[in-house]
Amino acid sequence: MKICRRETFNSAHRLFRPEWSDEKNLEVFGKCSYPNYHGHNYALEVWVDGEVNPETGFVIDLKTLKEIIQSEISHRFDHRNLNLDCKEFEGIIPTTENIAIVIWKILRSKIDSKFQIEIHLSETEKNKVVYSGD
Amino acid sequence: MKICRRETFNSAHRLFRPEWSDEKNLEVFGKCSYPNYHGHNYALEVWVDGEVNPETGFVIDLKTLKEIIQSEISHRFDHRNLNLDCKEFEGIIPTTENIAIVIWKILRSKIDSKFQIEIHLSETEKNKVVYSGD
Amino acid sequence: MKICRRETFNSAHRLFRPEWSDEKNLEVFGKCSYPNYHGHNYALEVWVDGEVNPETGFVIDLKTLKEIIQSEISHRFDHRNLNLDCKEFEGIIPTTENIAIVIWKILRSKIDSKFQIEIHLSETEKNKVVYSGD
Amino acid sequence: MKICRRETFNSAHRLFRPEWSDEKNLEVFGKCSYPNYHGHNYALEVWVDGEVNPETGFVIDLKTLKEIIQSEISHRFDHRNLNLDCKEFEGIIPTTENIAIVIWKILRSKIDSKFQIEIHLSETEKNKVVYSGD
Amino acid sequence: MKICRRETFNSAHRLFRPEWSDEKNLEVFGKCSYPNYHGHNYALEVWVDGEVNPETGFVIDLKTLKEIIQSEISHRFDHRNLNLDCKEFEGIIPTTENIAIVIWKILRSKIDSKFQIEIHLSETEKNKVVYSGD
Amino acid sequence: MKICRRETFNSAHRLFRPEWSDEKNLEVFGKCSYPNYHGHNYALEVWVDGEVNPETGFVIDLKTLKEIIQSEISHRFDHRNLNLDCKEFEGIIPTTENIAIVIWKILRSKIDSKFQIEIHLSETEKNKVVYSGD
Lengths: 134, 134, 134, 134, 134, 134
What we know:
By secondary structure, chain A is of the alpha+beta class. Chain A contains four helices and four strands.
């Protein structure tokens, strides 16, 4: 049984590699490399896979899951610049893929290891990633 | 090849265990345990996994699938109180997880066993479960 | 300039007139009159119409508007039975129309009268009302 | 890591087998067999499964993926009659299942074989298929 | 008080004027003029504006409204070719604007004239019209 | 008859008044005033109100409207920092209200004055404004 909780956060970011020239960055990352940042409404679904507890009928208490996601992810990244404000992205280009990996790692250390977890993250109405760990 | 049909139903429910005190129920189930019930617009996707029939180009006739879902699930639970009106939930706390299991069991007995089936059930815009059988 | 804030709440209700027979109630209200209640995920948009404040660029501070809607409406009605738990519906059949009127009256007394307000309330994906006052 | 890009196209189609009588077609395909065609807004998600490139933080460049989907699929089928205009459906009944298979085959030959691909195709708000190859 | 009911229908159509050349049609209507038709999932909202009946709490019985919309509009146009199958469009180019006018006229004759009615019709996720009569 | 076209753009912004202290900015604008910007997926609907042209069945050619919106608005603001990159916001705090006014003014000068125009702009799933001119 898999269960998910959805939360959103709004952040600025920019895709670029500091060791590359501006031309190379523009060639690889297109307008996502523009120097003054742009931003997105990220929509995050955290999926938790486990057994149903016969006493409560819950896989996991969604109130607890919501509080973990909010304190660890959405309150941390909401209204922030992922490149400048968030040490979690030091040395990491904040592509949707990499944001999903960062979120997975943070939550993996906060959610009981008896549960498998999967991150669904959409950057726009047209782009989405799914990451379920290495 | 997997194919799904989406249907909705609107029901009242309440989460509580009769052998627990009101305080314990409130502690575990929060406002979902309030005594006079609340309700949701449940959105159900029934996914059927099988081979494409080369004659029709269908995995399963969606008209038939729709009729099964409506007669067995949505007409049965729509505008009903899951705790009081539905014998399927006698002794079962109607969490989203348990509702998905009940739906899976009903449909499993009505849909040809050559198909695998998977239940996607959302309770609100923020909560969803997936159940594919035991 | 009109601006809106969206909030949701999940409630149980039932449509019936106590002075009518069960048959008459069933005839008029259909399955919405079933005795043990059913429920919905109500989605509420509160639209506020006014001038843009040249200092802030805001018609109204959305944080303030959100707090008013949550304390006055969504926290009051969420996970409640509108017929049994909410004195605001004493003697009032909780149709979507009447819920919108009740919400409009509560908010009208809490939001500065220099603003016009309009209530958009959806009961399901298929039904919606708009009420802008008498 | 899986990543998707969503595109849409609007086409006409009709379900029928030429070697069957009109009665048999109507019996099997219902109103989808009406002779003068009807149509849909198809929503396509192409999911690509692969490793994250450590240099770019991308599984695949979404700009490239978008261009492949548009040139190979959406520009080809948009505003077309799948039965009459598209040689890809010669001898193939354009059910949602078969359209997904045709799309998968076209994209499989255009996307690097180191990636697995999965097609999610919705025909209406209520019907959707997923195909990940044979 | 305004209330709406949403229904959908899936049709084929083509935009062209028979007295114009193919070149002129292509120039004015673009790919919407392609000869073999294309199609859409039309989403229709019928808004009814009137007083709340103090006995029922309804502006209009939504069950009745639904039945009118289904019998007069969605069952009539669903899975049909608007140009070839529907006499309502004889001599009328089935643009979204004109479809909304046709729907408005049909419903105006079926819904009590004490109500104002407004048609909201979307052809795709990106295009929508509103028509409230002449 | 009103018709709309929807487009989206993704931008970074920050709400603050340079003549105010950081404390005052934080008090008035909350986390929207954080110094390193955040961002949104803006969804824009441009509504055009006018007569239906009897020759074409169009109020306005949506292809033309799309091109105006893209060249004048979405290509201009997409992947940009509204505060730093866009001279249209010099001296203007980029609240949703003010962005809608700026868009209205740009489009008002590009769309034939026989049409009334109305801007619907959403910043998140919860916040939206409507502006129809002064």
